[in-house]
């Protein structure tokens, strides 16, 4: 499969490694240095089969829609969009997929095989990571561009929660700001206390799901990109499988409700 990439920042290397591993080929790539609208010309003119979107979050919707309208397969880094109304628009296009690589983690596969819908589960989610000061000086520190900390970091874990346990029936947000948040989510067979914190010291950072007292540490590294799970995303993509807009909508709507609950 041939790929054209929009964006060559931090996450680009992870995608490059995954593309090489599936014996794919990057035939075009652009970034902001090529000009604000260079990506449009690339999408229209490239011979690539698939457009990979690694741009700031607020640009994902426009880029995914335009690429699909030009007949391309689309793989967009998380979040697919930062507005649920835009996800619903993308649902009308074929072959659009997003990246929520924790679904491919060995722990996820183990848990999916063990969880019983007739049992009750007490869940504690503690996502405490280190982010250096320069991180906040980029678009990732601007809520209007990133969607906020819950979209930029939390979406992996909210997607995982829904993927494992299903839809929520009650949402309580204790607080949420630009660097951290805490709350509760309750569903038919689960009660989850969640915490997202991007101010943790590097030495003690963690990504833990505690389910009925048992810890599942999904990563102790500085970024999930280092877990090499993108390969499985691309492996599915070869068969035009993956996380569709319909699937992505669930966690995006949940995050919107979490923010809205705090406003109330």
TrEMBL record:
Coiled coil: none annotated. This is Gfo/Idh/MocA family oxidoreductase. InterPro entries: Gfo/Idh/MocA-like_OxRdtase_C (IPR004104), Gfo/Idh/MocA-like_OxRdtase_N (IPR000683), Gfo/Idh/MocA_Oxidoreductase (IPR052515), NAD(P)-bd_dom_sf (IPR036291). Pfam families: GFO_IDH_MocA, GFO_IDH_MocA_C. Residues 1-89 form the Gfo/Idh/MocA-like oxidoreductase N-terminal domain. It comes from Candidatus Kuenenbacteria bacterium CG_4_9_14_3_um_filter_39_14. GO terms for molecular function: nucleotide binding. Residues 122-175 form the Gfo/Idh/MocA-like oxidoreductase C-terminal domain.
């Amino acid at each position: 499969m041939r790929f054209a990439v929009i964006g060559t920042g931090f996450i680009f290397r992870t995608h490059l490694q995954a593309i090489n591993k599936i014996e794919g080929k990057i035939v075009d790539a652009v970034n902001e240095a090529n000009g604000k609208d260079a990506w449009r010309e690339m999408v229209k003119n490239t011979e690539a089969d698939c457009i990979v979107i690694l741009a700031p979050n607020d640009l994902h919707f426009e880029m995914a829609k335009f690429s699909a309208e030009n007949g391309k397969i689309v793989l967009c880094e998380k979040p697919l969009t930062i507005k649920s109304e835009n996800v619903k628009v993308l649902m009308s296009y074929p072959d659009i997929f997003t990246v929520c690589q924790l679904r491919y983690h060995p722990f996820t596969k183990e848990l999916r095989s063990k969880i019983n819908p007739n049992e009750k589960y007490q869940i504690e989610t503690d996502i405490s990571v280190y982010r250096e000061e320069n991180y906040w000086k980029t678009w990732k520190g601007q809520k209007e561009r990133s969607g906020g900390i819950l979209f930029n970091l939390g979406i992996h874990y909210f997607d995982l929660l829904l993927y494992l346990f299903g839809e929520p029936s009650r949402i309580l947000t204790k607080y949420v700001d630009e660097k951290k948040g805490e709350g509760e989510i309750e569903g038919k067979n689960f009660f989850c206390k969640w915490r997202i914190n991007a101010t943790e010291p590097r030495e003690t950072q963690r990504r833990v799901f505690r389910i009925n007292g048992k810890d599942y540490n999904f990563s102790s590294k500085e970024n999930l990109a280092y877990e090499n799970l993108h390969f499985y995303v691309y492996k599915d993509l070869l068969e035009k499988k993956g996380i569709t807009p319909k699937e992505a909508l669930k966690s995006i709507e949940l995050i919107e409700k979490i923010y809205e609950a705090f406003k109330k």
